[in-house]
Structure formats: C-alpha cells, structure tokens
Fold:
Amino acid sequence: MSKQTLSPKDFFGFQLGSDRKIARWEKIVEYFNKLQEQNDKIKVIDMGPTTEGNPFLLVIISSADNLGNLERLKEVNAKISDPRGLSQEDVKGLIAEGKAVICQSMSLHATEIGGTQMAPELAYDLLTREDEETQRILDNVVFLMIPCFNPDGEIMVADWYKKWLDTEYEGTNLPWLYHKYVGHDNNRDAFMTNMVESKYAAKIMYQDWHPQAYQDHHHMGSYGARLYIAPYSDPIHPHGDPLIWREHSWYGAHMAYKLEEAEKTGILNAAIFSGWAHMGFHWLGIYHNIASMLTESASAKLATPLYIHPEQLLGRGYDNLVGTQLFPHYKPQTTFPHPWQGGWWKLRDIVEQQKIASWALLDIAARCKETVLWNAYLKAKRQTERGAEGEPYAFVIPNTQHDPLTAKLLIEKLLVQGIEIHRAAKEFKVESLTYPAASYVIFLAQPKRGVIKTLLEHTFYPDDAWTRKQDGSPYRPYDSATDTMAEFMGVQVDPVKKKFEGEFEIVSKYEKPTGKIEGKSTFGYLFDCRLNNSFRAVNLLLAKDIKVQRVKEEVVAGGATYPPGAFIAGVDSEATLEKVAKDTGVDFIALDKDLETEEIKQMHIGMYQRYWGGNADEGWTRFVLEQFDFPYDTLMDEDILKGDLDSYDAIILPSDSPAMITGGDELQKWWKEKRPNQPLPEYPPEYQSGIGDEGVKAIKEFTEKGGTLITLGDACDFAIEKLELKMRNSLKDIDPKEFYCPGSTLKAKADISHPLAYGMPEDMLLLLWSSQAFEVLPHGFNEDYEVVVKYPERDILQSGWLIGEEKIAKKYAMISAKCGEGKVVLIGFRPQNRAQTHGTYKLLFNSLFC
Structure:
C-alpha cells in the first residue's frame, strides 16, 4: 500500500456515505488534487468552469507508465476507433500496444448523490490496493472518471441538506432546479451540447478518448429493486452495432456476479430502462460504438436513511413505462434472483453497490483487454461497411436553407459529436439535382454511422408488443420517441441513396459565421426575419437605442426576396451595425428607398417561476431568452400576488400543469389523481408555491387591461380554463389508446402572413408531447381568435410515434386570442423545447415584440 496516500476518511473526517453527511464539491476537488500530489497513478484535469464557475474535473487513473504515455495511448485508441486505411495486422499491433479506455461519470443528477460521494473512495482503492486484480486494472485500463457531472447542483444539494438537518424537512430534495437552467434535463442535452458541462463530456468521449465502455451512475425510486444494471430492456434503437447489445449483457453479467459475490441483494438486470430512450450520454454513446450503460440505485432521503417495510416493495417501480413489464412483481426471476427484504436503506448502501459495479466494469475490461479493443475495431469497421454498402449513402445539407445560420449551427453540433463532415468545393450533381458549392456532405461510410442516422434520419418508434399493453394502451417511452436533431432545428437534410461524385474537402474546424454590411444607405438596412439570429440582432440594436422596424409585405433588396416581417435597422450607427453583424452572422443590406414599415419595441417581459422542484421548461426558456439577448424578469408567486403587473408588456407561462401553477387544494387533488402511489413532496411552507385564486385574478386583469400572456405547451390549459377563453383543448384527458404523441416531430402549416409567424416556413415541423390541439368554440366573436399554426388533414407524423392522427387533423397548434384589451398567445407545444427546437423559436420570439 502507498503509505503516503491520504484516505478519504482521514481527509473528510468521516466515511463517505455515512448517515447524514455529504462531502461538498470543493472539498472533493481538494481531495483529488491532494491525491495527485501524493500518487503517480492519477492525473487531475480541470476541464474549465461550470455554468456557475465551479471546476469540472476529469480524473484519469492508470499505472504510472500509462500516465506517462497518455498521448500515445490516446493516438492508438483513436486509430482503433476509426481503423479506415489500416490492415488487420496493423490493428492487431495497435491492440497489443493499446489499453482499454473506460469512462464512468457520477451524479449527473445532483440529488442522486451516491456516485459523487463514492468517487473519492473508488479512486483511493485503485491507488492503494496492491493485489493482482488492482494491478491488472492499472496496467490494462485507462480509467476516465468524471467524479461529478453537475458540480453546481452538488453544491446546491449539499447546502440545502445541511440547512434543514435536524428538522422535519431533513432529506427533502431541492425545491428549485439543481442546475441554473436545466435541472434533471441535463442528460437530455448530450446530443445538442447546449450546457458547458455537456461540451466537456462530449470532448472527453467523442473527440479526445473514444472509450470502449461508458457507465453513468444514477438513483431511481426507493420502493423497488436496490440497483439496476445493464443490459437495457426492449425495445432497442435500430442504429447501434449489434455487438453493443451483446457487450451490455457481458458487462452487466460480470457486474451482477460481483455484486452477488459481495452479498448485495436486490440487483436487477434487463428491466425498467429500455434500449430506446432519450439521447443522454448513456444512450447516445451506443451510436458512437461505445458500450454505454447506466446504473440506477434505489434512493435514500439524500444522506438520511429511509426505512422500508417488505410489503412496500414493488416490481415495476415506474407506472406505465416501457421496460416495466419485464419486472412485473417483487419476486425472484432470472434477472432478479435475490430480492432485498426491506429494512433501513442508507447512502452508504448506495456508495458500496455503485463502487462494486464501477470496479467490476474496470475488472472485466482489464481481464479481457484484447477482446474489448478488438470489439471496438469490429464495431467501427462494420459500421463503416454498412455505411458504404447500405442506404442512405450520404446526407446532403444544401447551402440553400430557410435559415442558413441555423444550418451552420447544426454543423457545429455535429462536429462536437466527432462526426466527419465534408464541404463541396464546387457544385455537384446527385441524379437530377444540382447542389451548390459550400453544401455540406456527410458520408455514412464512417464509424459514427449510427449517430448520423439517429440525429438526421426520419425515425419511427416501434408500435408492437414491447410498446403496447394487451388492451392496446401504449407504454410510455423513456422520454421522447425521437431526437432527430435536423428536424428539431428546421434544417433541410437530404438523404441520398446512391453514390455520387464531387470535389469535397473535410471540415476540420467549425468557423463561426460573421455578417457584413452591404452598401451604404440613408433609408436603413434590411435584414432577414427567417434567421433566428436576426432576433438577437434586433435585441442588440434596441439595447443601443437604434430604431428597428418591420415590413409588412414581401420586399426585394440586394437582388434577393425577403418575406413579410423582414427587419430594417436605422442608420444611427454603422459602427454598431458592423459589430452586431460580426457577433450574430447577420447581413445588413442597404436600402435605396423608403418602405412601408411598422416600428417595433422590446417588450418588458416577465416569466413565472415556481418551486416544487422547479420547472425544467422554465429553465430552458430562460436559457434561450438569454442566448438571444431578450431581457426578462423572473416572477415568483409574491410578484404576481402583489397584483401590480402593469409595468409588464408580456408574461410567459412555461409549459406546466395548471395545478402546479395555482397550487393549493387544486394541486393536492391533481397530484392524487395523476400520481396515486406517490405522495406530494414535503417542502418547507415557503417553498410550497402556487399563485392561487388571487394570482389567477391578477394575471386575468393584466391581460384584459392590455397585456400579452404567452402560454407554452401544457400551460395553455391554464389560459383556457382560468381566462375562460372560447376554445378547448381537444386532447385534454384523452385516452392514450385514442391519441398518443410522446415527443414526436409533426408536420404543420404556418400562416406566414401573420406577425406571430413572420419568418417561418409555411410547411413547418414542430415537436409535440401529447399536449395541446385547439378548437375555437362557435360564438359571436370568432374573429378574435387568429390561427397561426394548423395541423394538416393527414400524414402528420414526421418522426417518432403518433397514435390517433385524426384527433389533431385540421386542429390548431397555435392561436392568438383576444382577451379584453390584451391577448393570449397559446402555443400548444414547446417551441423552445430544451433549447433544441430552433425551427420553432421564431414563434416565441415574434410574440415578444410589440
């Protein structure tokens, strides 16, 4: 044993995982840095600041010789992961030289504290144990550890827990989001990498290291299995290499064996969590040829033990979720042979079982290093061959796009994933089509074929025995039914079936587009409302007191045609225009004549924020507004209950249940109906939010006196019910057998002559979560209800899963309804969903100008 290496218990003053104790992130960082000072088998890398300025660590543990040779091992691993141009003999030589690269991350969800509390202990054991098993791991494995995926949230949770220790609220979860913007949604960000933490993880996994296996450590509900481990249950997503699913079973079996060997009970494989789910890191990695897995430990009350009676233990654990049918009751089965019998459940139990699962993954990779690396080679080789021989042969992203700047943003997002992209040096032909120079081409003959197809190709969720009950009711997918990035962003991507020729160059680095001023004018400078970035340009100009106007009709300028809603910037400061053009990528076109225009002003915006664990849609909306420089104020309950909302022009209600907005008895009733087996969380009184009847009255008065109320997704029901609008949501309380649409892209028609749809394509796509489709009830003032977006009559599904198309056919997806002197803008979907749906941003942005 290395005598000089300080143990976690000696450093922290308690055994990690002890009852009622949580090590705070800055102490954990200090400990890892101390380990690096004391031991030559660990390297600590600060990837940079988190969203709120805390260090994000990558900890690399391996033998001292391996750490001294990391760059070469990284190079070897990259060649194995992309063996194009190498012979089998070349690969065998690399495998003999290389090491298995295994990545594991901890506590992505900050209230799931076990992983981060376990990480220092796992590191210490690897650094100090001298047995043959440990030495084999150090010699044969490069272990990439992310000891905390969300340091900001870890600090919040540790401080919250300490604040309420020794009170009746000890062990309750945070009443607000445990990340500045996204809370629990941070793992839904893996494929779009909006958050800086996601960017760090993507760099580690998809650009720098290409690990052979990845495991993410989570917690789940308290009243079922004690620990879920790989493999996933059915259905599986179609684009992962078949070897991945075999590896899941292989790794999972070894982890299960090691846990059983250590007499850990209640271990479950192959149930609850399905192989088709959202593109978080532990699912997305599958399509990068990484055997990506998660563990899910039963939760205690943070660090406070929870007593569970044997009769309280249940199978399934998640009502109506795909995968739960493979764990139908709390009895022994082949994937659950040794049930836990109840009693006290503690954080230390979680730390121990996660440490064993983590160690077991490293152990099997070390024992079978050559197999692990050979599998990596086979997956890359076979995916490349499938791409070369199958269809499509390539995806073309034309240089002519509705919003070319968003198309370039898509390219940036794909490059973050490590995807190989080409740009056409000259125009080229594909059968009868001619694509212009500077169009992008993504050939499928590359190892990341699975990622490319997942993010760019039409996706249809399975509708079969895995996804339906015997009575025809759908099981709920684990999150969205599709994550088709290009469709979300509104970018045209053309699949090309057959081979074609052209002159193409690899895009080695993303170049941020910069705009320019074309010409000189005394009449103003036109810029395009089809560009999302133009709305940011507007906000930057208005902040500098530069006048901005919009044209109501189609206009020709600079040899191009612009649709209604195009912006005109005043001529006050060309220096400011130049800076805005450079920052946003937007071009400003000099006008040679006056046009009929309407001046726009920035609204004073307020946005409702509640407690009860926070609302991720609210956090994402804040993030999107800030990205596009929309100023806004956060409105808490007390701000609305004051009843003094006259200073605001617009109030946004992010997607939320009306009961969660109003709180009180309405929330109690709704919770019992929707979640009968799950008690309402117990928060201190000051965090039991809700605007109540007085808040409803204040919002109604605000709107009727001339304000604009903007409701997103489920919050539209609040507006319909509380403001007594003459319309109905035809999907409200509908049986899922009749209509179901779990996170799917749908076709719709936008009225592009309406100011709220300025800049949109007439044929558009939107992302729907089984929420809203509107009908206007016949009454004497039908003209007060203006339809902005409408569903077509048939063939509505683009990607995902849609049951009961006829229930939304010809219904309305977005309406502007007059309410007294003001209006309500009802967007029956989330136009800004998770900062992913760039294709519908403009519907929200247009609503924020007057």
Notes: The chain has four domains: 8-383, 390-506, 517-599, 605-846. The first helix runs from residue 8 to 12. The mean pLDDT is 96.
